[in-house]
Amino acid sequence: MLAFVPGGTFGNEGSINGENKMKDYEAVCDFLIELNRENQYHINWNWARFEWMTEHPEFDKGLINSIGLWMDGGRVVGAAIYDMYFGKAFVGALPAYSALYPEILDSDLLIWSYPLYCYGMPAPLKSLLDRTLPLSSMAMHKVGDRYEHVGQRDFTHLHYVMICGCGFPNSKQNFEPAVAQFKLCFPNNHTILTVPESPMFNAPEAQTVTMPRLEKIKEAGKQFAERLAISDGLMQEITSPMIPEEQYAAIVNGSVR
Predict the structure, then answer these.
(1) Which of 56, 119, 196, 223 could staple 177 via S-S, CB 3.0–4.6 A?
(2) pLDDT of residue 83
């Protein structure tokens, strides 16, 4: 009978350091060997990634459901570590149990929406991005002029949207690092929206200019839903300043005096 074991059997209260660790280690290793038997040279790498995540200092060992094992007749047939990869970082299941994969593997759109921090993404989101490392294998292949790690699974069906706002009056020499990182991480099927002067959306007195811009953004959402793309003209309207740069800078400077 198939059963899900919250916290796996990793000792007391879901801790990886419980007395059953060696027994669980062997059970999960057997699972990984079977999962990767066609590429057995990756076995140690797979376990290293699994162990790295569970031993990572930011991993909350107090979460009872942080680690989960699917077991059938005492045999591990699936494993997952939560809160590490878009909500479920490491997940693997034997082919006969592929239905256990979380919905994200079947989703067709991932949206990354965040404010620009130090010309990049905020630390908590960067930490989440770092935790997507287990989605890649050690193997590499050449794509154009650079090498990329081969993904553990086929994600070519996914589309990625980056929505990033900043408090600067324009986009020049501000969004470039964040955009470059996003394109390198998600080189295919990406759509990027950068919005300067975004703090204005929180100011009621700015509604005369922000409400029309929000309508444009809604229109862009409809376009994307229909054809997975936004027209160049509409994209230009969305990513341009809402008021003249000098006026915006004067308002900001006046508010801090």
Answers:
(1) 119
(2) 43
